[in-house]
Amino acid sequence: QEQLVESGGGLVQPGGSLRLSCTASGFTFKLYMVKWYRQAPGRERESVASITTVTGTTSYADSVKGRFTISRDNSKNTVYLQMNSLTPEDTAVYYCNTRGLWGQGTQVTVSS
């Protein structure tokens, strides 16, 4: 069964950090670009970051550039999203996406 499972979300104070993980199973993960998206209440889902396969080239939304870092460990079938200097505007459900698959999402809440 092909699936993606996100983890690592939680409640963090403004200025804090979290690291999200997206673990894949059921397919050859290393062959595919992976993207992180987020969706805040009442807003459309937006792309946050992406990482390619062989070269590991990354891309970021302007709103997270310089604060978030996407990386992958193909030996673990996992993509990470390191999030630093978090603000309340980063509060959302975060999803990973690849090969047409979506995970269930992980909630990130930034609040004092």
Condensed summary:
With 112 residues, the protein is mainly β. It is built from no helices and eleven strands. Strands 2, 4, 5, 6, 9, 10 and 11 form a seven-stranded mixed β-sheet that branches.
Structure overview:
The structure is a single chain. The protein has 112 residues and is mainly beta. Helix content is 0%, strand content 51%. The model has no long low-confidence stretch (mean pLDDT 96).
The coarse silhouette is globular
Quaternary state, please? Answer: single chain
Count every helix, treating DSSP H or I runs of 4 or more residues as helices: 0
- Termini separation: 40 Å
The ordered string of helix (H) and strand (E) elements is: EEEEEEEEEEE
| Portion in beta strands | over 45%
Average of the residue pLDDT scores: 96
Radius of gyration: 13 Å
Work out the helicity level. under 10%
Biggest beta-sheet profile = 7 strands, mixed
Number of strands: 11
